[in-house]
Design brief:
This protein has a seven-stranded parallel sheet, sandwiched between helices. The longest helix has 22 residues. The chain has ten helices and 14 strands. It has a domain of 202 residues: 3-Layer(aba) Sandwich (Rossmann fold), CATH 3.40.50.720. The radius of gyration is 18 Å and the shape is globular. It is 41% helix and 16% strand. It has 294 residues and is α/β, with parallel strands linked by helices.
Amino acid sequence: MLTLVFGATGLLGQALVAEGRSRGMRLVGAARKNADYAMNLADAQQITDLVASVAPTLIINAAANTNLDSCERDPGGAYLVNARAVSIMAEQCRTISARFVQVSTDHFFTGDGCKLHSEGAPVTLVNEYARSKYAGEGFARALANSLVVRTNITGFRGWAGQPTFVEWAIDAILNHRPLRLFDDFYTSTIDVGAFSRLLFDLVERQATGLINLASRTVSSKLQFIRELGNALGVHLDWIEVASVRDLRLPRAESAGLDVSQAERLLRHSLPTLGDVCHALVSQRDSRPCIMRRG
């Protein structure tokens, strides 16, 4: 097998490449820069030419425009990257008989707090990011035997000046910086290391269709950071509580995912909130203190 990972230098892409290579897989990556292949996802011909040249047996698309403000300002650009690019990848997989994995999002649910949402739950599309990602799901699922996974991930990317959520949070916790946290924004966040392992396990089991792959614990941002503080051994007595309703741009704030289908396929429980936070602290302690720009 030869696996091609789109978005190979991003938060998830880095973890997927590391996990795949740790399993002895032949794997190459594509990204805007610093990858095996330079790629502009808005250019359909570049995608077509790359797939034809590499001829992979598996494509994993971990690339997306996840910046909500950017998607709102430029819906057409968001569609090109988050939807149309997926349709091109899926069509190329059909042409060369390759398998396709599309990494989607959890930004589809609102108004029901910490509820768990199954793969069949009705969606609500409140912004252009959600609309473009949902369109991408449709293009991927039009390909027979594709795998689409919904998730909410965090972890370490190492880009100077562009911290991920957990990189920002750990810095704030350890340096006693101000923390204003939502107590009404719920997710089933999983660390990218665990997600990558579980995703490749699903691939090995020939899983197809739409599957939620996330933590089995739904938590607010406030609860998540408190648990992360516990894992770091820091009592967070300076937190200020905020509401997601104060944000200018609407977002799907009730993003809990029911992972029971994934647990049945994998035949074990998925990580809890505590598992995720302790894994993040362990990953932080093992990473070299080098920051780079992707």
